[in-house]
Specification:
Order of helices and strands: HHEEEHEHEEEHEHEHHEHEHHEH
Number of helices: 12
CATH class: Alpha Beta
Helix content: 25-40%
Shape: globular
Mean pLDDT: 92
Radius of gyration: 23 Å
Largest sheet: 10 strands, mixed
Length: 340
C-alpha cells in the first residue's frame, strides 16, 4: 500500500499546499445542494404530447415506453397531471384523420391540434401550450413542405406555414414553434401573426434542427416518415457547427423570440455555442431516440434510469439550455424531489 493508505503523522509530510481541499464542499447532500452550480428544476421542462382523432384513446407508442397517443378527452386529463406536477408547458403534435399532398389538416381551423388547443386552454388555462408548426404529419408524402418533382419547395410552403401558425394562435396557442426548417419561415410567420393581431404571440424557432438519426421513434409516433428521399436538403448536416450560428442569427433577425437546438445530447457543443451568441431563451429538445435509449437500457437493468435521466437533463442545463423539451418530464418532476 502506498503512503496515502498509511496516513500521515504530520501535515508537514505533504509535498504540496493542503489549505484548499475540493472534497470539503462535497461532504454531505445538503452541502452539495447549497454549492451546486447548475440547478435543474421542474420549471425548466416542457412535455411533448401526441393528439389523435377519436375518443377514449390512450395507446402506448411501441418504441417510446410510457409515451402515448391521446385522444382529446384523455389529453386534457394528461394536461391536468402535467400542471399538477409543476411542469409549465406542453408542446403538441397532431395526427390528422386524413393526409393530402398539401397538408391541409395542418391549417384547418378545425384541425386536430386546433381542437386540442381549445380544449386544453379551456380546462387548464394556466398551462402554456406550444404548438409545433410543420406540414410533415399532414402531408401524404411526409415532407415538411410542398413537393414538386421530388423537390421540397421552400417559398411556396411559407404561406401554408404562416396560415398554420395563425390558426394555432386563433385557437389559443401560447407559443408557436415552427420546425419545418424552410428558409425565411420565421419572417413569414411573424408577419402573418402580426397582421392577424397576434402581435404578442411568441415564436420559438427550431433554429438549429439537424437531420438526425435520433428521430426514428418520433417518426413512428407522428407517422411522419417521408415516403421518398429524406430531409437532408432542409434540415442541417450533423457535421456542422458554424452553420448553426448562421441559422440562429437569421431567425433572430427575422423575429424569433426563443431559439431551439435539436437534438440535444449529441449537440451539447452547439447548445454552448448558441448560448454564447444570444441572450434569448434557449431551448433544446431531448428527442425520441435519446429517450428510447435510456428506457431500453433501464429495462435491461444496465443503468439506473432516475440517476441517468437527471444527469443528462442537468448536463443540458449546464451546456446552456434554459428549457428542455423531454419525454422524461413527468418522471423527472417526481425524481427531482429527491435528487442530491
Amino acid at each position: 500500500m502506498g503512503q496515502k493508505g498509511k496516513g500521515f503523522a504530520s501535515m508537514n509530510q505533504f509535498p504540496f499546499d493542503t489549505t484548499s481541499r475540493a472534497r470539503r464542499l462535497r461532504s454531505s447532500a445538503a452541502l452539495r445542494t447549497m454549492v451546486r452550480e447548475t440547478v435543474l428544476s421542474v420549471s425548466d421542462l416542457i412535455y411533448p404530447l401526441f393528439v389523435v382523432p377519436g375518443k377514449g384513446v390512450r395507446s402506448e407508442i411501441p418504441s417510446m415506453p410510457d409515451v402515448f397517443h391521446h385522444s382529446i378527452d384523455l389529453l386534457v386529463e394528461e394536461c391536468r397531471k402535467v400542471l399538477d406536477a409543476g411542469i409549465p408547458a406542453v408542446i403538441l403534435f397532431g395526427l390528422p384523420e386524413y393526409k393530402d399532398e398539401r397538408g391541409t389538416g395542418a391549417y384547418s381551423d378545425d384541425g386536430i391540434v386546433q381542437q386540442a388547443v381549445r380544449s386544453i386552454k379551456s380546462a387548464t388555462p394556466e398551462l402554456l401550450v406550444i404548438t409545433d408548426v410543420c406540414l410533415c404529419e399532414y402531408t401524404s408524402h411526409g415532407h415538411c413542405g410542398l413537393v414538386e418533382h421530388g423537390e421540397t419547395l421552400n417559398d411556396a410552403t411559407l404561406p401554408l406555414l404562416a396560415q398554420t401558425a395563425v390558426s394555432h394562435a386563433r385557437s389559443g396557442a401560447d407559443i408557436i414553434a415552427p420546425s419545418d426548417m424552410m428558409d425565411f419561415r420565421i419572417a413569414a410567420i411573424r408577419q402573418a401573426l402580426d397582421e392577424a393581431s397576434f402581435l404578442n404571440t411568441p415564436i420559438l424557432s427550431y433554429a438549429a434542427k439537424y437531420a438526425s438519426a435520433f428521430y426514428g421513434p418520433f417518426r413512428e409516433a407522428a407517422q411522419s416518415t417521408p415516403a421518398f428521399g429524406d430531409r437532408r436538403t432542409y434540415q442541417m448536416d450533423p457535421a456542422n457547427l458554424r452553420e448553426s450560428l448562421k441559422e440562429v442569427t437569421s431567425d433572430i433577425d427575422e423575429g424569433a423570440d426563443m431559439i431551439m437546438v435539436k437534438p440535444a445530447l449529441a449537440y451539447m457543443d452547439v447548445i454552448r455555442a448558441v448560448r454564447e451568441i444570444t441572450d434569448l431563451p434557449l431551448v433544446t429538445y431531448n428527442v425520441s431516440g435519446e429517450y428510447a435509449m435510456v428506457k431500453a437500457a433501464a429495462a435491461n437493468g444496465w443503468l439506473d434510469e432516475r440517476l441517468v435521466t437527471l444527469e443528462l437533463l442537468t448536463g443540458l442545463r449546464r451546456a446552456g439550455a434554459d428549457l428542455i423539451i423531454t419525454y422524461h418530464a413527468l418522471d423527472a418532476s417526481r425524481w427531482l424531489r429527491n435528487f442530491s
